[in-house]
Amino acid sequence: MSLNRGEQQICDYVETHPEELRFWQDKVKSIAREERDRHRAAAELADQLSAYVAERADVVPMIADLRLGERGSAVSMRNLAEYWLRLWAPPPPKRKTTETFG
C-alpha cells in the first residue's frame, strides 16, 4: 500500500511516540469491532485522523504543514486508515457462502 507524503509523516510520527502508537492501535481495534464494514470503518478512521492532524498541527511543527494540502484542501488520510486497519485490526469474519449440493 502506498501512503501519500502526509500520511507517511503521520505514520512516522505515531510510530516514534509510544503513547500515540498505543492510542491509535486501540482506536483502530475499537472502530473495527464497532463497524463490521471495513469501508465504513476506514472512512470513520480517516475522519478521525484528519481531526487529529488539525488538532496536533498547532503543537507539532512536523504536522503543521499537513493542515492544508497542496491545493488548499485537507490531506487525505484514507490510505493510512486502511493500512492501519489491515495492520492492527482483527481480520473481518469470513462471509458464509451458501452452497447447495445436489
Write the layout of secondary structure elements.
Elements (H helix, E strand, L loop, with lengths): L4 H11 L2 H17 L3 H19 L4 H4 L13 H11 L14
Helix pairs in contact: 2-3, 2-5, 3-5
Pick out its properties.
102 residues; mainly alpha; 0% strand; 61% helix; single chain
Describe what you observe in this structure.
By secondary structure, the protein is mainly alpha-helical. It has 5 helices and no strands. It has helices spanning 5-15, 18-34, 38-56, 61-64, 78-88. The chain is elongated, with a radius of gyration of 16 Å. The mean pLDDT is 87.
> How much of the polypeptide forms β-strand, as a percent range?
under 5%
The biggest sheet amounts to: none
Mean pLDDT: 87
- Taking all Cα atoms into account, the compactness measure Rg is 16 Å
- Class from secondary-structure proportions: mainly alpha
**Extended strand count:** 0
Helix amount: 55-70%
- pLDDT under 50 segments (min length 5)? none
What's the overall geometry? elongated
Distance between the termini: 42 Å
Number of helices: 5
N to C succession of SSEs: HHHHH
Structure, briefly:
The protein has 102 residues and is mostly helical. It has five helices and no strands.
